[in-house]
Design brief:
Strand content: under 5%
Number of strands: 0
Number of helices: 21
Low-confidence stretches: 1-12, 421-435
Structural class: mainly alpha
Largest sheet: none
Helix content: over 70%
Shape: globular
Length: 435
Amino acid sequence: MNTLIGRQRSVAATPSLYKTLFATCIGNALEWFDIAIYGFFASYIAQAFFPTADPAVSLLLTFGSFGVSFLIRPLGAVVLGAYADRVGRKKALLMSISLMMLGGAVIVFMPAYATVGLAAPVMVLLARLIQGFSAGGEFGSSTAFLVEHFPHRRAFIASWQFATQGASTLMASAFGLGLAHSLSEAQMESWGWRLPFAFGLLIGPVGLYIRRHLHEPESFSRREKIRSPLRLLVGQQKSLMLLAIGLMIISTGINYMLNYVPTYATKSLHLSATTAFSATLLAGIILTVVTPLMGLWAEKIGRRPLMWGSLSLLLVTIYPAFALVVNQPTAGRLLLLVGWLALLKSVYFSVVPSMMADLFPVTTRASGMAISYNVAVTLFGGFAPLICTLLISATGTSLAPGYYLMALTLLSGWALLKSQIRPGEEKTGERGEAL
């Protein structure tokens, strides 16, 4: 009788694949939608909250606030990641989406600098810090939740973490393209740029409601309970975190380069805003469709071949692809560059979450993934638009972003070369498949 009751509880505690995907990925989608639209509408945000006599300085201040918000992400990863490992993935996911909604609300309703003065940029920076803290714990908790519920489909189901980032880019690009067509420049500067932020704010309550009805994975419930997952990470698993950071580097670099495209295309290549948003729209479509397909393919041929193929093609094609666009900027060439980057990113990106999850045991998985992911995003992603803007200004060449991505490709290649599953875990146990 007790055995029967235990089995019934186990079945009841295991949600469907689609419900689990939707509940976990909607928070990730909200996070990346807010990030994407902040990057896409940076020039309008600069005028509203960071006005200066020099437009270039305003833009640098805007991207600076974009980057600074990423400095707090590792803190969010430490706090929310440890919280997820100690008390549960579900509670951490509820907290992260609530904080993301709070930060979004501040940006939507904050008056411009012309109305409230210095309070405007200060509050916008505070909102970005709140969102950065929230985002710090989202990836580790949600990815751990996914792979622990469905370990036999880890490559496919974890790929949706990044497919939703593509969907967020797609939605953000659609907003940018639609607003560019339907509103005048004056309307965009006055209030139009706030519309996508308001839409993002509406996503939150749906995710909050669904996440409240989830159950913890069985492997987490059966885990060995430890008081301080952070102490275990720092004491015994530093090398695993370094490898996880390395695997993420090129992935996050390309992601934020795509967010930088509207500014890069209009300011450096002098193309139209419509062209720029069309390119990011294409990237969003590719990332959304191709990423889960690559996750499925990885289940058949393994993850490492896909990653090596993508890295190799990136290394040999980034420079000629950027040179093609810089030497003769046209809409078609920009679409080709962005589409190619998005395609190779999809191949590599699709298997990174499950690779990172396999590096850590259940007891430190959320913390390890959260910290590694956010260190990589902070150092190599969040400041990518600012770094590229500074590199272009310092070198005088619009090819600078290409050089930056080539350097990141080499770093991730080193991490992939060094990564390996711990002895005795190949294709057995909770790890699933060898790295």
